[in-house]
Write a structure and sequence with these properties.
Glutaredoxin, alpha+beta, Glutathione S-transferase Yfyf (Class Pi), Chain A, domain 2, 5 strands, 9% strand, 5-stranded mixed beta sheet
Length: 221
């Protein structure tokens, strides 16, 4: 029954919510998705968590997981048909999680600063871009060794970082298309052109508008 499914509160373009949806899609475990707006959060969501951030996964009606990486790990540990948690080459999962944490603390912050510099036409945009490029080069180096970030197979590192690389690529599109990161561009393009990405980025009716139960997750992939 639909009422037994986990509930995911999500924001369409939020990169944290995006990577949670990707992991859920890859796990082939359906959830009820509730699309929100940050300036009009549903009371049902705030009752469960005063933090009120997305993504937020609710299990069994009251168990709340509020961090996107925790959601990814939870759903993939429950079901991982693509072996995303085991596609890390010679790197143990603990090292991959440490890399993701490093990018969250530094690269994600640098991308936000880069976006702000462009939006407000600040004179430090090149400096902000270069701060991001330190991490882009790390990814380019990884992709020079194998098809995906940790091995020849897609893994957790790929789907955890991809939404933020996408965010970077949209700030100065022309510069990005000519950037010295050809393998990274090809890797990102593969995701953006995939059927998976189209489904993960589908727009849903806002929960506060209709309170409709919308099932997300392609169990047949």
């Amino acid at each position: 029954m639909l009422s037994n499914l986990p509930v995911l509160y999500s924001l369409q373009h939020c990169p944290y919510a995006m990577r949670a949806r990707i992991a859920i899609f890859k796990s082939q475990q359906p959830v009820l998705i509730r699309a929100i707006k940050l300036n009009n959060k549903p009371p049902e969501m705030l009752t469960l968590s005063t933090k009120g951030t997305v993504p937020m996964l609710v299990l069994n009606g009251n168990e709340v997981i509020e961090e996107s990486l925790d959601i990814m790990l939870k759903v993939l540990k429950d079901n991982d048909p693509s072996h995303l948690l085991f596609s890390q080459g010679e790197e143990p999962l603990s090292d991959i999680i440490a890399i993701i944490d490093e990018f969250e603390q530094h690269f994600f912050v640098a991308v936000e600063a880069y976006k702000c510099a462009k939006r407000y036409q600040e004179n430090n945009i090149v400096e902000c871009r270069r701060a991001c490029e330190v991490y882009l080069q790390k990814l380019e180096d990884r992709l020079s060794k194998h098809a995906f970030l940790a091995s020849e197979r897609e893994g957790l590192l790929d789907i955890a970082l991809m939404p933020f690389v996408r965010q970077f690529s949209k700030v100065e599109r022309q510069w990005y298309q000519q950037s010295p990161y050809p393998k990274l561009r090809a890797w990102l393009s593969g995701y953006l052109q995939s059927a998976m990405f189209t489904k993960v980025m589908a727009k849903h009716e806002l929960w506060v508008d209709g309170h409709q139960d919308i099932v997300f997750g392609d169990i047949k992939k």
